[in-house]
Amino acid sequence: MKSDEDKPRPVTSVDVALKAGVSRSAVSRSFTPGASVAPETRERVLKAAAELGYRVNQLARSLTNNRSALVGIVAANMDNPFRVEQIEQISRRLIAQNFRPILMPAEAAEDPSHVIGLLLEYSVSGVIVTSDTPPEAICQECISLGVPVVLVNKRGIDAPVDRVLMDNENCGRLAAEALAQKGCRQLALITSENPSYSLEIRQRSFLEMVGEFCQQPAMVFRGAFQNYEGGVQAMSELLTSARSFDGIFCVTDYMALGALDQIRLGTERKVPEDLQVIGCDDIRQCSWQGYRLSTIRQDTAKLAEAVVEALLNRFSSPNAPATTRILPVELIERSTTRSQ
Amino acid sequence: MKSDEDKPRPVTSVDVALKAGVSRSAVSRSFTPGASVAPETRERVLKAAAELGYRVNQLARSLTNNRSALVGIVAANMDNPFRVEQIEQISRRLIAQNFRPILMPAEAAEDPSHVIGLLLEYSVSGVIVTSDTPPEAICQECISLGVPVVLVNKRGIDAPVDRVLMDNENCGRLAAEALAQKGCRQLALITSENPSYSLEIRQRSFLEMVGEFCQQPAMVFRGAFQNYEGGVQAMSELLTSARSFDGIFCVTDYMALGALDQIRLGTERKVPEDLQVIGCDDIRQCSWQGYRLSTIRQDTAKLAEAVVEALLNRFSSPNAPATTRILPVELIERSTTRSQ
DNA sequence: CTGTTAGCGCTTTCAG
DNA sequence: CTGAAAGCGCTAACAG
Q1: Under a CB-based contact definition with an 8 Å cutoff, are residues B141 and B116 in contact?
Q2: Which of A114, A287, B140, B228 is deepest in the core (most CB within 10 A)?
Q3: Hey, which residues does A222 pair with through a beta bridge?
Q4: B289 vs A265: CB contact, 8 Å cut-off?
């Protein structure tokens, strides 16, 4: 059986023009903000359009101005709730600005340049990368094609791309400071093997600050992956190491939840009495009553705002110098740290 | 400061044609699977294209065949990990089939027809709705415009739309059966106020089956929302109700996690010894060692496969009768039910 | 198998 | 302020 025939011919601008008794140009102008049309004509056009159910064909429009409202979002680690929150917020923000987000899930394993190729074919007018994939090559390609790239929480690269970062430096600092102040003497850091850029900064700044605030340097334990299981694994190694410790910083909440469960199930130690824990990101699971995890909050709404803003600025001045926007973080105290 | 000048003129098919010494059509055909080109010509074209960095402009292509590879995904409840899993799987599947998913997060509160309008402007060739928003009106509109709609886990509507559902009926049945078999005498159901279509079926079939398997009918407790907090709330009401019970079915895992935490924190009762719990969906949190929730699994990969398949079928036969595909579910036993 | 010829639906100079 | 005309990049129908 071959394909049936059906599709009703969509209504075009000439249909509207005919009905309103004007030219196609008039119709076009009526739908172009800031074009010069007599208010009265425009009125007529809009009315005719409404009656016919006319919708501007953005594809055709994009073809002429060689710039679509499509924006690619390259995302990895969608199992991490924090990533999802970012993606959702960024999408919403884009839509609010009348863009359309194309979602490209891409794990580190996959070939990112292929993904970007798929986007470029659709003349996306920008690409937002939240994935951990080293995007060096692909960014270069976009830039050279005049497609702006915004990197979220990623290492800077050689090309002039805008970046939006949470203050990862401060994440480590705040955690170390808080734990020290709350009486911890021997700290530990839980992170993953092959940490991403953000995690690397968090861990480095934490370790540095521990050097400043505490007598003992912090121990470091790593899970294979940057997820719940990784947290479990690192924590379990820490516990069996027979080293003594009374404070832990996990570089992500996602790992911290695993660590917390491992403490709860694998030991008699009480949090926060014997052991205090701080995570990072403030995913919604932190406030679940089963966890009540103290953490360093990143405001994803602000982040999304900054990302889209960067994109818009880049549209209006393609050759402006690359910007790096660092957003503040704050310590949220819940029940895995002592209140004093 | 106005906008700088920069964008390099993108390379088009005529550039390639010139370089390869052929016509534009030859170029076009070389990039159209199944078009008739001499292998030798095609070779030359591909080579020239590669050297020039040519990429087919899909926007222009879509304009001619009046059908883009853009597919809208309307999604709500992205805080629920199960939803995210669906979205990710569907996106991946779409991309694998060379489509591009446009993500439209949309809460029930928002106006869905506006969202769809945004998609239609971009000539999406299909729309996938996983949101709980009653999509009746918008679906009608899409259909009448010849844009197929696939509903995921949603109530059927008057228009001829394809649907993909998990076997919600069986979710309730399996849960009731398992709990009864494992020795529960007095069951309870935890669900939310204003349950979505799926939840409604799950709860109804559960209640019916309890009538069949148990002496006592099941009690029903509802949280305000279909999320963790809703689970906490319903469970806490159940606990303070002073009614006795020894088995619970939560219509979603997301709620079950809240219920479980509430049991752990608000009572002395042990799961599964005193009380058995079964959830539904099998989100990844279920296998976290802090929960180890027994549940009814839905295979999101299969679901995504079915969704995209439905879409493809609809493309090839727009007028085929609407289909409803029901995917099997299975009981996954972890530690919140007794093994015997 | 290949080139030529017409558009797809819209915007945009350019005259009027 | 408005219409006519040209063209965005591509594909499809038709001859050759």
Answers
A1: yes
A2: B228
A3: A191
A4: yes
Dump pLDDT digits (tens) for B275-316. 999 999 999 999 999 999 999 999 999 999 999 999 999 988
Strands (E), chain B: 70-75, 100-105, 126-129, 149-152, 162-166, 187-192, 219-223, 247-250, 276-281, 294-297, 324-327, 330-332
Q: What is the pLDDT of residue A109?
A: 66
Distances (CA, A) of B8 to A52, A98, A144, A318, B242: 39, 25, 8, 12, 73
Considering the entire predicted model, what is its pTM?
0.94
The total of other beta-carbon atoms located within 10 Å of residue A7's CB is 12
Q: How many whole angstroms separate alpha carbon A272 and alpha carbon B239?
A: 27
What are the structure tokens assigned to A213, written together? Answer: 């605030």
Task: Give ∠ CA B99-B102-B105 in degrees, rounded to 5.
Answer: 145
A311 CA vs D3 C1’ separation (Å): 37
* Local confidence band at A136 (pLDDT 50, 70, 90 cut-offs): confident
Q: Is A233 helix (H, G, I), strand (E, B) or coil?
A: helix
* CB within 8 Å: A1 and B317: yes
Q: Is the dihedral of CA B273, B277, B278, B280 positive or negative?
A: negative
Output the six-digit token pair for A140: 């270069």
Q: Is A333 helix (H, G, I), strand (E, B) or coil?
A: coil
Residues 6 or more apart whose Cβ sits within 8 Å of residue B301 = B89
Strand C proximal residues, B:53-72, Cβ < 7 Å:
60, 63-64, 66
Kind plus residue range of the DSSP H or E element containing A151: strand A149-152
Buried b (16+ CB within 10 A) or exposed e, A221-232: bbbebbbbbbbb
Which of strand D's nucleotides are less than 7 A from any protein C-beta? 1-5, 7-13
Helices (H), chain A: 13-20, 24-30, 39-52, 58-65, 81-96, 112-120, 136-144, 168-181, 197-213, 228-240, 253-266, 300-316
pLDDT at residue A300 greater than cutoff 50: yes
Please tell me the distance from the alpha carbon of residue A182 to that of residue A255, in angstroms, as a whole number: 22
CA dihedral B195, B159, B115, B306 (to 10 degrees): 70
| Whole-number distance in Å between A54 CA and C7 C1' | 21
DSSP string, A88-140: HHHHHHHHHTT-EEEEEE--TTS-HHHHHHHHHTTT-SEEEE-S-S--HHHHH
Convert A37-67 into a string of H (helix), E (strand) and C (coil). CCHHHHHHHHHHHHHHCCCCCHHHHHHHHCC
A196 close to A226: Cβ distance less than 8 angstroms: yes
B24 contact to strand C (CB, 7 A limit) = yes
CA nearest to B298, candidates B151, B167, B156, B155: B167
ω before B272 within 30° of 0 (cis)?
A: yes
Helices B253-266 and B228-240, packing angle to 10 deg: 50
Residue B28: its H or E element: helix B24-30
Q: Indicate the DSSP class of residue A285.
A: G
Given this model, what pLDDT does residue B149 score?
93
- Domains of chain A as residue ranges with CATH: 13-56 (1.10.260.40), 66-166+300-327 (3.40.50.2300), 168-298 (3.40.50.2300)
Inspect the interface and report whether the beta carbons of B4 and A317 lie closer than 8 Å: yes
State how far the Cα of A235 lies from the Cα of A249, in Å rounded to an integer.
11
Alpha helices by DSSP H, B241-334:
253-266, 300-316
Name the band, by pLDDT with cuts 50, 70 and 90, for residue B151: very high
d(CA A92, CA B292): 34
